[in-house]
Amino acid sequence: MLTISPIPAFSDNYIWHLERDGQHWVVDPGEAKPVFDALGDAPLDGILITHHHLDHTGGIAKLRERYDCPVYGPGSIDGVTDPLSSGDRCEILGLPLRVMDVPGHTLDHLALVLEESGENGASQQHLFCGDTLFAAGCGRLFEGTPAQMYSSLSKLSTLPPETLVYCAHEYTVANLQFAEAAEPGNAAIKNRIAESKALRAKNLPTLPSTIGEELATNPFLRCHIPAVARRAANHGANGAIEDSDEVGVFARLRRWKDDF
Ligand SMILES: [Zn+2]
């Protein structure tokens, strides 16, 4: 059986810890100490990396020093032993893993989808999307263009709605406050704000989310909704520019969120 749990790191990062049949992998270890603490005496069997930012990679060297385990991720990152690129398929923890490129937040950003087969032939997909898709939000555009990021998010949004989404930061409540500003009439956003605040009040993670939940409440996946497009257009410079295309709506939303 596969279990996936968050290891909190820094102020709001999650290092996802995957365990199956006594094997352990972690995703995006920005620091090593919380991973050492979570593993105890168990060895680490491997590391997955989504992109080059230090809060996702800073723990690689120390973890490799202790465990000498493989590191799968973008080939340009120091410490990666097994470079991955778009379309690759491999196996970790005895389960198939596939790789999608999702440039935008950074140009090297990968999304990793782990597939677990259920007993009756149904499969559950687990998406590790780093800083590309967040609960009710998306990553900042540090390296890519709005068109690249929008295309990356659109790819992720075609995964089955029940796909579990493991984002790398606990940004959900702040993101939902922006989502509500972008689409005030959306009742699903209001409900999600109440649920997320209740979880955070108990110091529990709001993640994983699902693709279905994101499609219903994440403004960056809702650029095709006329009400969202109107709010984005009205907010921007002089409020006068009509954005009929979804990339234009996305770009306006992302700029608005940068200053929110
Ligand atoms: Zn990042």
UniProtKB/TrEMBL annotation:
Cofactor descriptive note: Binds 2 Zn(2+) ions per subunit.
The domain of life for this entry's organism is Bacteria
Query: According to its UniProt record, what is one Pfam family this protein matches?
Result: Lactamase_B
> Sorted alphabetically, which keywords does the UniProt record give?
Hydrolase, Metal-binding, Zinc
**Record EC number:** 3.1.2.6
Required co-factors: Zn(2+)
Task: Please list the residues that bind Zn(2+) 1.
Answer: 51, 53, 105, 131
Q: Ranges for the Metallo-beta-lactamase domain?
A: 12-169
Is this entry keyworded Hydrolase?
yes
Give, as in the UniProt entry, the pathway in which the protein acts.
Secondary metabolite metabolism; methylglyoxal degradation; (R)-lactate from methylglyoxal: step 2/2
By its UniProt entry, which SUPFAM superfamilies does this protein fall under?
Metallo-hydrolase/oxidoreductase (SSF56281)
GO MF? hydroxyacylglutathione hydrolase activity; metal ion binding
Subunit info here reads: Monomer.
Q: Which PANTHER family match?
A: HYDROXYACYLGLUTATHIONE HYDROLASE, HYDROXYACYLGLUTATHIONE HYDROLASE GLOB
Q: What function is annotated for this protein?
A: Thiolesterase that catalyzes the hydrolysis of S-D-lactoyl-glutathione to form glutathione and D-lactic acid.
What the record says about family reads: Belongs to the metallo-beta-lactamase superfamily. Glyoxalase II family.
The name under which this protein is listed is Hydroxyacylglutathione hydrolase
Write down the species.
Microbulbifer marinus
